Amino acid sequence: MSRFAWLCALVMFIPVGMDGSSRRTLPDGYTRRVWQTQDGLPENMSQAFAQTPDGYLWIGTTGGLVRFDGVRFVVFDRGNASQIKENSIFCLTASRDGSLWAGTDGGGLLRYQNGVFRHYSAADGLSNDFVRVVYEDHQGILWVGTDDGLFRLSGDRILRVDGQGNIPSLAVHAIREDDTGGLWVGGSKLVVIHRRDCKEYPLKGYPSASRVKSILQTRDRIIWVGTVSGLQRMRLNATGNARFERIAEITSTVRTLHEDNAGTLWIGTIGGGLLRYRDGRFSRVNTPEDPPSKTVLALYEDSERNIWVGLQTGLLRLSRTPMTTFPLPGAQNADFGTVYADKDGSLWVASADLYRINPRRSASELIPPLSPGIRVRDVLRDHTGSLWVGTEGHGVFVSKGGTRVHYTTRNGLTNDFIRAFLESRDGSIWIGTDEGLNRWHDGVLTNYRMSQGLSYFSIRALLEDMQGDIWIGTEQGVSHWQNGKFVEDAVTERLRSEKVWTMHQDRDGGLWFGTRGGGLFRWRAGRLSAFTSAQGLASNSIYQILEDQRGTFWMSGPNGIVSVARGDLDKQAEVPEFRPAVTLYGLSDGVEATQMHGGVAPAGCLTPSGELWFPSNRGPVRILPDQTRPGVLPRVVIEQVLVDGREVRNSGHLVVPPGEGKLEINYSAIRLRSQERIRFRCKLEGFDREWTEALSTRAAYYTSLPPGQYQFRVQAFEMNMPEKVTEASLPIEWRPHLYRTAWFLALCALLMVGGILLVHQLRLRQVHARFEAVLEERNRIAREMHDTIIQGCAGASALLEAVVVLEPESKGPRKDLLDSARQQIRVTVDEARQAVWNLRQKGTASPEITQLLGNMAQQVGHMSRVPVRFEASGKPLPLDRTVEYVLLMVAREAVSNAVHHAQPEEVRIKVNFDKDKMRMQVVDNGRGFNLDEALASQSSHFGLVGMRERIEHLGGRFEIESAPGSGTRLCVDVPVRPSVS
Question: How far apart are CA 299 and CA 60, in angstroms?
Fold first, then answer.
């Protein structure tokens, strides 16, 4: 039988034996993700795990303690935490009070609480620094096992327990409490401590081979003990007489044991890899060879039901997911790949070579090549049972019942590179190639090229719609075959420049076109709608479109696989503001470094059982839509705040001193699954008006932020559930500089108002002062007129009246009186000139006041015929011109009043000089007057008021004493001021 006939027989029947078959490696329903030093671990060796109540996963490595939020690793070691004395973290546990306890390999015990490390060593009672296990029992007692001794924590002291009473001294590597309250302690021996009793259990094998490394009680009450030489178990019973039995299947050192939430026992060994025990059977978990390690140091299940495996070569996460890869034996990465569901339930996978996955999905086999060097691209089973196999450069092979037909360009094909098959309802087989379209019907091939109306020669996808029309997707547009010819319509016109890689018709008759780079298009009721990443799609490149029974679209692309309800897309076509709920499957489901394939049909298939299969570089990817994933929302946290480039402690309310206004807030979401589907949006209330969606960064930056009260809010949500969010917030009080504070500005405003008021008051004072000066000047002019012109005119008038009353013949007296009047007028004119001169400027120093007063006394006495005597005492001083003038005017007014009104016999002027003042008195022995009446009648005695004003203006003292019949005494004291040039 020829090789091809053997292939035909193979594909027609389910084979009984599969020599070249490959068994599944990972447990069904799990995918994996690996981290190593290039991903952020300080060292690859991962020895311990714990999860604190805040959701962080803590990893103990030989290079330090690591905190992981699902994306970023934060390392604590001797370089940044002074309490850490040794970087190698051997064991971890999270106590119920939220503290994290870490045992080190030679550096004692550590506690991490509220962001602070505390170190325990010999000073605290821990006599051995090699801590192998830390365990908290149901009473909250913390037990510590070391290479030399068992300890427990009492307050802040560590007390040794072994070597006392009936507890033997031992090295401790494992501690576990059973459901009866017994504390199992294993290491150099295996003992159970129950209250004050201690019982030792012997194990199978030599003492050196039976040293205990791990202890676990499973929910079926079996005690499992991992030793240096393997695994042993014992079922607890009421009598306590049970013995341990050795598990023959496991002979490697069992370093760690863990029972997951589903009751599966995970077994980590040194050199024997990872094993599982479920339903009474042991199975080996053969993870792919990167990282290549069979040494398992730690096992842990987090709150999201991920299984964490600490390896010698890195960190492994096994996640339950509806998306799994199905590795193919010897499969290599390729530029194309197809998955085709056969009628018997098996799958054909073409990825350079041809593979077949059995209907039970338990194994796959490599189909021997048809001929050396032939690479298979795609497969089709027609209604007659014939198998069509498209190749890369070797045309099409058709086989049925041991016969075969080979079609190439030599016997009718347009090209030997096959990209798509389609069987239409009339039984025709349509073959799309790299250079044209072919139609096979009843053994006859018909070719269609661009010259016959094909939009482009490179074919990518074929579809027959409900009306029987054929749609051809090409590298440059789509063609529409209708009633035996190519037709043009709105679809072909709009998609003329698009690379159409997949097509689908939904149950309602809508046509969907997936393009390479142009997004998704829908043709319905004469309207073409477009959907791109701007409307919520994960990518604008779509390799395959599948629709399940619930009306959900499953679309593959370079970023993975997305699911979206067709109803959401239909709604978005009518309401552009609506955002569909899109779920992305890829790295977020643990499919590490998976590149989906497209460009060759079919780039995915939907099986009758509801499975979805897509080709990838790591083999076919299977999705089980009915398998739900954990729906816990990610917890968003604010991890770091930088103000003006300096980190500040986040205590829940941030008070920022005055600065430059630069703010950086780093946030994250705690999800230990991959966070590819998580999106963030943030807002600084008081500054931002709208939410800002963060695409690639997990930090918010603000510059030139003005002082004020703010609240930073950040929300995390999954792209398929944008309405469900978790949020973290941080109140921020950014204090201003002193010159920008409210009270400072208010003070400045008050000072400004006060300044304005002060200037206004000063201005008013100036105006008032000027007004007062004007009034004073008017009064002074009035005094000058009274003391000079008016007095002189009055004297002259009196003389002229005397002349009038004289007899005409009395020429002598008349002549004397006229001479006196003439002299009086001359003196008055001179005094008026002097007064006018004084109004304009101050003169230089005048003759001494004594001379002036003496001259004035002599002149008045001569004119009035009343003796006026002048007396001076003390040393005469030169006075200011104004003082001299005022004293002269006051003296003249006083003397004039005396000689004209008092009818005195004599008038005396007395002047006395002192070092700081001058006193002048004018005394007469006339008839006197009533002083009160005179002052009350100022209109008739303006002279008294004028004299007082003159003296008080100089800062002097004015006094007058008089009474009817007693004469008058006027006394003036003025300060002495030196004359001014």
Answer: 12
Q: Are residues 599 and 455 in the same domain?
A: yes
Domain edge (last residue) among 738, 766, 793: 738
Whether 606 maps to a domain, the answer reads yes
pLDDT, residue 332, reads 62
Q: Give the single-character DSSP code of 815.
A: H
Inter-CA distances, 880 with 294, 776, 831, 886, 975, Å: 119, 19, 18, 10, 10
From the list 389, 411, 391, 408, the residue with the least C-alpha distance to 399 is 389
Q: Quick one: which of 156, 144, 147 has its CA closest to 113? A: 156
Number of structural domains found in the chain: 3
* Predicted pLDDT of residue 937: 65
- Is residue 7 a contact partner of residue 367, using CB atoms and an 8 Å limit? yes
The CATH number of whichever domain residue 979 belongs to comes to 3.30.565.10
**Residue 904, in any domain of the structure:** yes
What is the per-residue pLDDT across 407-460, written as a single tens digit (0 to 9) for each? Answer: 999 999 999 999 999 999 999 999 999 999 999 999 999 999 999 999 999 999
Give a yes or no: residue 822 inside a domain: no
Q: What percent of the chain is modeled with pLDDT above 90? A: 49
Residue whose pair of structure tokens reads 């004015």 in the numeric block: 958
Q: What does R_g of the chain's alpha carbons equal in angstroms?
A: 58
Q: Are residues 647 and 602 in the same domain?
A: no
Closest CA to 300 of 264, 340, 343, 258: 258
Q: How far apart are CA 871 and CA 906, in angstroms?
A: 13
Q: Same domain, yes or no, for 663 and 582?
A: no
Q: How far apart are CA 530 and CA 229, in angstroms?
A: 64
Q: Using one digit for the tens of pLDDT, what is the confidence trace for 756-775? A: 999 988 888 888 887 777 77
Residue type, 829: V
In a domain, 871, yes or no: yes
Lowest mean pLDDT among 201-215, 278-292, 939-953: 939-953
Q: Which residues contact 661 (CB under 8 A, 6 or more apart)?
A: 644, 702, 703, 704, 705, 706, 734
Distance CA 37, CA 30 (A): 24
Between 881-897 and 791-805, two packed helices, what is the crossing angle to 10 degrees? 30
